[in-house]
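Molecular record:
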Amino acid sequence: MELELDLASAPHVPLDHYWSRVVGAGRANEGLRADWQGHLASAHRLGGFDYVRFHGLFHGDMFVYREIDGVVAPSFHYIDLLFDAILATGMRPFVEFGFSPPELARETATVFWWGANGAPPTDYAKWAALVRATVEHWVGRYGIDEVRAWYFEVWNEPNLSPFFRGTRSEYFELYRVTVEAVKSVDAELRVGGPATSNFVPDARFDGETEDTTQHETVLTASTLDSLDWQPVWLEEFLQFCVENRLPVDFVSCHPYPTDWALDGHGNGHKLTRGVEATPTDLRRVREIVETGPYPDAEIHLTEWSSSSSSRDFTHDYPQAAAFVVRSVLASIGLVDSLAYWTFTDVFEEEGGGRDPFHGGFGMLSQDGIPKPTMHAYRMLHALGDRLVHREEGLVVTRRGTDIAALAVHYPHEVALSVPASFDTRAVADRTLATGEPHAMRLRIAGLIPGTRYSIEVVDAENGWAMAEWTRRGRSRNPSIADVAAIRASAERGHLTEYFVSGDGVLRVDARLQPWAIALLTSSRTIVA
């Protein structure tokens, strides 16, 4: 990687930090825990996230749904505790209306360890009354100007049967009654959907595959080139809404690069798609929106990660961070948000993790220790507000007179999104050992002489919490001293300092290991 750049002649294009607009969490009740709230504050400080999205707003453990003489009369105490805490952090809720409260669910405990009620409500009129009462309560508690800044999404992944035990038509009707209920409170409140997962090929897959022995399928490059991946239900959803004169303020779906729901009802196939899957999928969503009946709708990809399993050991490795950085940089300008799922391993879809590093989605471990993905978002947050240069694996940005650059070494030997590692860490370890180091040489002119810059590198040897955990024996129940040592080892990567020469040129020569991410910033830039 070599770059010669003169800031005097380089373009300065506005850069939207779309990657930090929304971040995911597990369920509402987890947000009542002190550790979850502390982790949220850390993620906001480090990653600059604006909104947080989660399931289970109306689940039984939030004790919301009540009736008095057959009339819906909710109790909002637990919701108030949670939303007060989110707003106090400096963030806002990206509201997901789901799943059904047990009193209204056609079926109960259809998915997750905590028994989410994925069936649609038995009474859509009472559902609408619940939604309307909830929004009215928020407006009364927080004010209309605040609530107008929120987003309201209808359900989660209704195309997958554990999450919605109903038909597509039933979901569309659920959207209709929900959007009408929200808009009856205030027409400017922002509502959207269909929140579907995942992208599927336009025809059944019958191409060549290779078994990884990890319950997964790897597509060959020739097969990848022949497939046309489409977001599930999106075009049909927009058509339903325009035919029924329903508002769509934003569209949402989930572009995981590793799941393939063949029929849209949970009958699926595990696979790993190509490394360009994320920007390719985001371009397709933008094309559908811009040429559809709601061309001004915002685009929010409300869940995304290197895989859709909370027991994928690769989530704890540097490969996941490299995947994030590479995909995010390749997707600049395509959507309004791409929400990483999730910010913390305080996450109980499959119950609590058995190890401190158990392959959970979180950027922060269950002890609040940063994983490489947290460093990825911290480094992305440190980028400037003007884009000066972009190429594969590298961006240079500017804020005022200072620059910030971010590079990633995603080995060319891996033509796929990061392969998941289920059951054992074998695939993650093998992938980590793939590739060779490469040089990064930057020559950037037009800077203030004498300014100090530094490069921070996170890789398998620097800023990786699992390395210290491994050195300490990989205890499932580490001591307080162990946790403190692991945290100290993972707070930051390796730093190397550089100074701008008298002729205003910054000269950087660095060597990046495979899967490394590297941030170049001036001493005046706050990155943590």
